[in-house]
């Protein structure tokens, strides 16, 4: 009985046993990746990743089954795979949150994309490839994160947002102030409010742990008519 089950699972032909095994494996592997994301406090967690992985697997099973049931000589499962990968991009975009220049969820969006590809691999019977890929995903999300923190322990990503009582702002001068404090500016978002005659500027920066923000903000205040300053962490 077990030999027949193993043979059915490993067979290239579509059967109830192999389909159930594929869906179960995609549920497990997708859920494992989802657990790691939920551990980081992301909105997309176990259920989301498990459903995405199972959905991709089911799409491949249906794509391979249609030519059989309708006696079609030509079938192209690759078309379904392409549609899954492009369609899951909308889910990934939904996982990316942007709040006035502060971006969160890029890693989760990438996880959604690769979990969809994981489901496709399971759908075509590449079980060991899917399992090994899951191990690599966890290694990337967990171990490389620790390594990244160790390497970049002296610097961390921050978002500094200022509100200024003027529409005439020279961001080059502001960047020079950051440079004086050894702060690297990666991106600048500038918004104008013509009704209130104020400007909102968001700087995505890399700062050292020893950065004296009180002195930084005081110098910024002495140069520009600041209304408020906000400091936020950048989290993926």
Can you describe this structure?
The longest helix has 25 residues, at 127-151. Helix 3 packs parallel to helix 5. The strands form two sheets. Strands 4-5-3-6 form a four-stranded antiparallel sheet, with helices on one face. Strands 1-2 form a two-stranded antiparallel sheet. 24% of the residues are buried. The two termini are 47 Å apart. It has helices spanning 2-10, 16-39, 46-69, 77-95, 106-123, 127-151, 171-180, 213-223; strands at residues 97-99, 102-104, 155-164, 184-193, 198-208, 226-233. It is α+β, with helices and mostly antiparallel strands and 236 residues long. The protein is elongated, with a radius of gyration of 25 Å. A hairpin with a 4-residue loop joins strand 4 (184-193) and strand 5. It comes from Candidatus Gallibacteroides avistercoris.
Overall pLDDT confidence: 79
Overall spatial form = elongated
Given as residue ranges, the uncertain stretches (5+ residues, pLDDT < 50) are: none
- The level of helicity is 55-70%
Q: How much strand? A: 15-25%
Alpha-beta classification? alpha+beta
In this structure, how is the largest beta sheet organized?
4 strands, antiparallel
Amino-to-carboxy terminus distance: 47 Å
Sequence of secondary-structure elements: HHHHEEHHEHEEHE
Strand order of the largest sheet: 4-5-3-6
Number of helices: 8
Strand tally: 6
């Amino acid at each position: 009985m077990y030999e027949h089950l193993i043979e059915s699972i490993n067979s290239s032909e579509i059967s109830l046993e192999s389909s159930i095994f594929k869906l179960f494996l995609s549920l497990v592997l997708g859920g494992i990746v989802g657990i790691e994301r939920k551990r980081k406090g992301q909105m997309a967690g176990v259920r989301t990743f498990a459903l995405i992985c199972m959905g991709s697997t089911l799409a491949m099973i249906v794509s391979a089954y249609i030519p059989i049931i309708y006696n079609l000589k030509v079938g192209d499962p690759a078309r379904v795979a392409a549609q899954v990968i492009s369609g899951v991009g909308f889910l990934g975009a939904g996982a990316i949150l942007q709040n006035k220049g502060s971006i969160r969820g890029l890693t989760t969006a990438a996880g959604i994309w690769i979990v969809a590809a994981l489901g496709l691999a399971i759908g075509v019977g590449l079980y060991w490839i899917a399992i090994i890929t899951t191990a690599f995903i966890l290694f990337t999300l967990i171990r490389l994160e620790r390594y990244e923190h160790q390497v970049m322990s002296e610097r961390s990503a921050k978002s500094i947002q200022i509100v200024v009582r003027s529409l005439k702002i020279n961001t080059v001068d502001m960047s020079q102030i950051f440079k004086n404090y050894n702060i690297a500016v990666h991106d600048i978002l500038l918004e104008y409010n013509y009704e209130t005659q104020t400007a909102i500027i968001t700087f995505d920066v890399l700062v050292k742990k020893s950065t004296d923000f009180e002195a930084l903000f005081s110098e910024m205040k002495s140069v520009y008519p600041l209304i408020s300053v906000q400091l936020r962490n950048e989290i993926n």
